[in-house]
Write a structure and sequence with these properties.
Length: 139
């Protein structure tokens, strides 16, 4: 479960870089542009991961096995991602949170830089969210 939750950062990085900024750009593009309304087409990705997690947990709950724990790990990552990304960074739920630790400041700078450098002409950089290289300490 913990290994899955930690591994999800790598999975999310790969999907963000090669799917969302590749052939899935038509769903992800509205995340990089201001859009009216509460929901974005980009939210489809969260729906897919939530459904996958739910199915792994639900269909393996009778005889708890590795797939059940993978589903729990995906759910844990999803909750963390939602809080960091959607609530704290993008403020999709009103909050007064301001990053204070050097780790959180680095995460916020990396994600800000991602949004500044990502557009239809190129994917930009910094595709993870729970990890950011130390170079963002100085950006």
């Amino acid at each position: 479960m913990i290994l899955t939750a930690l591994s999800m950062e790598g999975v999310a990085w790969l999907l963000h870089r090669y799917v969302m900024h590749g052939f899935g750009w038509f769903l992800h593009e509205d995340h990089h542009r201001y859009t009216e309304g509460r929901f974005q087409k980009n939210d489809s990705f969260a729906g897919i991961f939530s459904l996958l997690s739910f199915m792994l947990i639900f269909f393996n709950a009778r005889e708890i096995n590795i797939l059940f724990w993978i589903g729990v790990g995906v759910a844990i990552y999803g909750v963390g991602y939602f809080i960091f990304h959607d609530v704290w960074f993008h403020r999709r739920i009103k909050t007064k949170y301001k990053p204070k630790s050097s780790y959180m400041k680095r995460i916020f700078k990396a994600h800000s830089y991602h949004h500044q450098t990502s557009n239809s002409k190129g994917p930009g950089e910094s595709f993870g969210f729970l990890y950011a290289p130390k170079k963002y300490n100085t950006v």
